[in-house]
# Entry
Amino acid sequence: MGRIRSKNSKPELLVRRFLHANGFRFRLHNRNLPGTPDIVLPRYQTVILVHGCFWHRHDNCPYASIPSSNREYWINKFKNNKERDKRNLKDLRKAGFDVIVIWECELNSTNALSSLLNRLRRKRLALDD
# Structure
């Protein structure tokens, strides 16, 4: 478990490459914001959280399994992770940010990325008006 990255994971890098290729510029892991969001687009007042299904407990996802050894520890760990995520989401919204959560399993299809692109393009058009 020690080799699992909290920053610069494969799903996060995929989203970052996609955003950059589509002309969006962003900041990474801003420590001044609640939860140190993965991607911050200051111009659009938007943060993108790229959540791993296992660690952040994506509902009804096959990747969100519970390890068979030391189950009590893991159940408590996951409960605390979900509570922290909920608190960070609330604090980011209170700070005026639009929060977009992308789940690791959603990146297997192009729908999540095209939906993200459409949402950001609408924000870009609203700013240009």
In short: Strands lie at 27-28, 39-41, 46-51, 98-103. DSSP finds four helices and four strands in the chain. The longest strand covers residues 46-51.
